[in-house]
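Q: Predict the assembly, please.
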Amino acid sequence: MSLADIKPGECAIVTNMKSEAQMRRRLQDLGLISGTKIVCIGKSPLGDPAAYLIRRAVIALRKKDADQIEITEVNQWRRS
Amino acid sequence: MEKVIALAGNPNVGKSTLFNTLTGMNQHTGNWAGKTVELARGESKRGDTTFYWVDLPGCYSLLAHSEEEETARDFICFEHPDAVVVVCDATCLERNMNLVLQVLETTHNVVLCVNLLDEARKKKIKVDLLLLSKRLGIPVAGTAARNGEGLEKLFESIETLDSEKLRKTELLEYPKPLEEAIQKLEKMAEKEIGDKAKPRWVCVRLLEENESFAASMKKYWGKSVSETQEVKETLKSVWKELKEQGYEKEEIRDAIAETFVKASEKICKDAVIYEDRQYDKKDRKLDWLFTSKKTGFPIMFFMLLLIFWITISGANIPSSLLSEGFFWLEERLVELAVAVHIPKTIYDPVIFGIYRVLAWVISVMLPPMAIFFPLFTILENFGYLPRVAFNLDRCFQRCCACGKQALTMCMGFGCNAVGVTGCRIIDSPRERMIAIVTNSFVPCNGRFPTILTMITIFLAGNAAGMFSGFFSAFLLASVILFGVGMTLLVSKLLSKTILKGMPSSFTLELPPYRMPQIGKVIVRSIFDRTLFVLGRAVAVAAPAGLLIWFMANITVADKTLLRYGADFFDPFARLLGLDGTIFIAFLLGMPANEIVVPVMLMAYLAQGNLINITDATVMRQLLTQQGWTWITAVSTILFSLMHWPCATTCLTIKKETKSLKWMIISMAVPTVMGIIVCFLFATTARWISGIF
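A: Predicted assembly structure:
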């Protein structure tokens, strides 16, 4: 499954990032590595991009970029 | 004693606010990623020490994936500031810690400044500063820069850097194979660079084959360490060994980045406590309101409308008061000149040329600017603009451009030159160029008055009272939307022709909402922006006024120079629904768009006299006498929206792109579009009105 598949209100754990080098660096700088929890908190009015909660910061990613991020353990998000 | 202190930090952590509070220098701060695009410097005195503060561009890392990160890294690494203060957002400390660790790898002289403590308190987030200081081995100061809280502690922390024994051991431990490789390189690197930089930091950059860093070493040290024969060979063998252990170049880079992230996690564990699980509930609710399918776009349009409506209705009265006041003063000035026997040949050009154009520029421009700028800054500081980029990104993606272009367009509302500089926040060079070339499709504050005057005189003039203001705002918003549409269209055309390419990857941070300090915003936008822009307009308006006066009064063979010019451009301008005089006004308005309407009026009025140019009826009469119809007005609006950018913007484009070619393209694109659109509009409109 990829990050683009989860709906607003769902969370997941990142397992692998297939993004091209530059984008992967950028995501790593934002604290996204495999094992990181990520939450989809909403989509823009036209459905793309979507907003994700990464280490308590909200980052918008386009669908084609979210598609490169593989995830597992999709759950309903509960704040902890 | 003198100390050079660099301020580093992620975008949007209140770094510029801190810088302003520290130095008292008024540098504009905004609530979006990557606003500080040039290194701002300022100083402050404390005791007998002078602190020189350098505001580095906001960045997420020092690994240099963008121009801003490169600038920040080069300053920290090669300019050797006495200390680096890393400013962090207390509400999002773990993410910020990544940069702290990277800076700590380059230098030991680091102070951690946990800013926005006021926001953290509001959200019931507790930060254990002592624990952080212990874990990191550096002084930590908690601040709320907006209220000046904690600044004393920050100064003290910087001073303790000299006296206290700092941690000299490394915080970060890379995976074993990497550590072994670093060890092999470190001695050699030390020999090469001495104490110019931390060898370990340089070694890690060598291992990850950081090309931008190699280039900077060459620039600052004359040669890159990787060029040394010994290092070169060792690197080769080290890479070979690592490859055998499963570490290709990409894996090396991943491992380094992951080490930082994991270390940040460890350092922040239990040091930041979120007492309220729902601490960001308000932010998420507002996000829903501003970006949901149902409400996102309507609210955006409503905001646009509201801003214009307030600006238009608020500016009306002060504008006419100013205009009356200036006219009254003009009469007195003439009387005075006559009384003290100044010859007419001198006071005529000075009063009717320079003074009058100045008076018009000020009375037409000052009130809307003084209202628009603060309103816009409030939205900006509140954090609404990134949401606009979020909402509109899909449109830009379709046009193979970057969603952050929406942000640079917003900056363009204030001033296109600022918008062009702001395009640095776009990483992809291709998309950045698109944003630069199309920036002038957003009418800057200098063009607002032109468009607004046309709307009030010809299009909304008949509607009454409150409704008239609202109708004008609606028309103005429509013009802006048309400009946005043109931006998208031209972006797409560029992507399919001279700037071919696919949309690149990008991340856009949506920062927490922050209540703007309205009082400060008003004061700051009036002093920083309004007066600055007005000053620039006035500086241009004075000579332009003089020039146009001479052109309108020097006669050669029964025709004024202005007439010659206007007649020359007239046939072409008429095709566009304009006339020669309007076209000349746009040409003369190149140094600053603000003077287009005054110059035009002055040209029309070469012999006549006009009392109050804010009086719509009088203006309408005057322009109708010159053969204006609603078609002329709309064409003028369209041409104002789309023609060559002003001189300042052109020079900025040249500076930013380092290319004359792109400056010329940026001038040609809007001009050609303007000519096409005006021609099509004028032809169609004439044809339609011919039928009825």
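The radius of gyration of chain A is 11 Å. Residues 3-76 of chain A form a domain with the SH3 type barrels. fold (CATH 2.30.30.90).
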